[in-house]
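U., I forgot to send this yesterday:
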Amino acid sequence: MSFNRLIIMGNLTRDPQLSYLPSQTAVVEFGVATNRKWTGKDGVSKDEVCFIDCRGFGKQAETINKYCHKGRPLLVEGRLTLETWVGKDGTKHSKHRMTVESFAFVGPPPGEAETPGRAEEPEPQTNEGDIPF
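Result:
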């Protein structure tokens, strides 16, 4: 038995990059940074940042691309995937990436104060059947 589930909340590290598969399925790639702050036994404040590469598919990919930009907070849920490839020089490479299955916007877009009556963003989306593999 196994279980593979990630839930992260952080800020986008770059603007999303949208592309399309030959099947015309939308694919979005973006990065999220999460921060952890704590005080060590020595009383010194410490800060740790984790950068996570993410990939989403289908309508949610188009929504993330439309409404998200660098610095925007986002809550993302999905699974961890391992990509492997062989470089031009013949060396093997691998990288973990989060495959997005659902997401939710967190707070107002950067630079906008939360005010009543502001335009509503679309509801959080789940990925049901959009992943092409």
